[in-house]
Each structure stands twice: as structure tokens, then as C-alpha cells.
Amino acid sequence: MRVAWRIFLLFTGLLAGAVVCTAFIRTDVSAEARWAVVAGALAVLTGVLAAWAAMRFVELEEDERRPDVSAEFDVESLYGMILLAMQNRGRQVAYDVRLDWTQPPLMFDSGAPLDALTIASLQPGERLTRHLGGSADLGKRSPYPDTVGQLSYRDLRGRHFTTEVRLSLEARRGELVTTREATRTHYEVQRIPELLQQIARRLEDLRRAIDSRESR
Question: Does residue 143 share a domain with residue 78?
């Protein structure tokens, strides 16, 4: 649609210019008629330029609001975990999101390739992840092969977008450390309930042992 509008406006501008040239080439046209043709052609050209500018403004606004889906390896969000993350950084919902692999990532536990990922819709700012394994498992698979795939999705108007995805976990091997203290802290805090349960069980065993000795 954008190309069709550009062609139409360009054709209209060329037609207006051709009319002016014809008016000056022909000798049987009076001066007053020539200047009337020029004035009319200038009005047409002004309208064409205004329409072109308005169309370009709308296109920029649409591009700014369109969905923008990306895929990446995430080694920081969860402590000690390697994730494959897909996120919509755009300002519009992405539909029929699909990531087909040419060189798929490998699951660390089984070594099996990851299947193609399909998501019905991805809201603006929404982020979905797939767990691949623990960061400690990366050392067991060296080198980890690069990942190549094709990411496709469409917007609300049905426009389709396709981009190539190239991911390298080897490039991030040296980054597999805790660079965010809050991530490690959150991980340790999650362990507190389990540790409290262990302490409670030990205290219960100790209480039973004391009661058993006293009963003798």
C-alpha cells in the first residue's frame, strides 16, 4: 500500500510538470493561459508535497508503534540459569509469533535440539522464556554451537515482519557470573523457607529424642 501511494503521488507530480512543459512548448497558447497552467500545476505540486509529507508522518508513526519482537540468551534474570527469552519491545501486539531454527539451540540435560517456538500473541513489553539448563552445565558442552533461526510475526493490520536471529552463547561464556547482586539475593531468599523447614524437622527430632530419654 505504501509503494502504491508513492507511485500515485509521483505520477501526479510528473503529470503536472508535463502539463506545464506542454503549455510552454506549444506556440498557440497565450501568455495568460500559460501562467494559469503554471498556477494550477503549482497548486497540484503543493498538494502532492503536502500529501507526501502527511503520508511519511503516518508511516513513521506506524513504524514507531509497530511490534518489535526479539530473541536472546538470558544468563542474568535467574541465578545460575540459562534462558532463551523472547520479548516484544514494540508498542503494539505481535500476532502469530514463530521462531524457526536453522541451527537450533541444544537442551543441556538431554542434548536434544529445541523445537520451533510458536506464540499466538505477545503483548507490548511481554517477555516469555524457555529454560535451557544451568550455567554450570555450559562447561560440559564446549563449545556450545551458535544458534541461527528466523523470527516472524505480524501486526494488527496483518503486515508480516521477518528477521534473522543469530545468537552465540560462547560469546557470553565469560559473563556467566552474578553481575546483579539482587538476582543472587533473590535466589538466596527463596531458599529460606526450605532451610526453616529443615531446622523445624531437626528441632522436632531433638524434642522426640529428649522426650524418649525422659520417659525411661
Answer: yes
Instruction: Dump the DSSP string for 22-55.
Output: HHHH-TTS-HHHHHHHHHHHHHHHHHHHHHHHHH
The answer to whether residues 164 and 82 belong to one domain is yes
**What does the alpha-carbon distance between residue 92 and residue 186 come to, in Å, rounded to a whole number?**
32
Contact 16, 45 (CB under 8 A): yes
Residue 91: strand, helix, or coil: coil
Indicate the SS3 state at residue 13: helix
In angstroms, the CA 86 to CA 161 distance is 15
Q: What integer is the mean pLDDT of 141-164?
A: 84
Q: Which residues form the domain of 150? A: 69-178
Strand ranges, E, within the chain: 69-74, 81-88, 94-103, 117-122, 127-134, 147-154, 160-167
Give the total number of structural domains in the chain: 3
What would the pLDDT profile of 84-117 be if each residue is shown by its tens digit?
899 999 888 999 999 999 888 877 777 788 888 8
Give the global pTM: 0.54
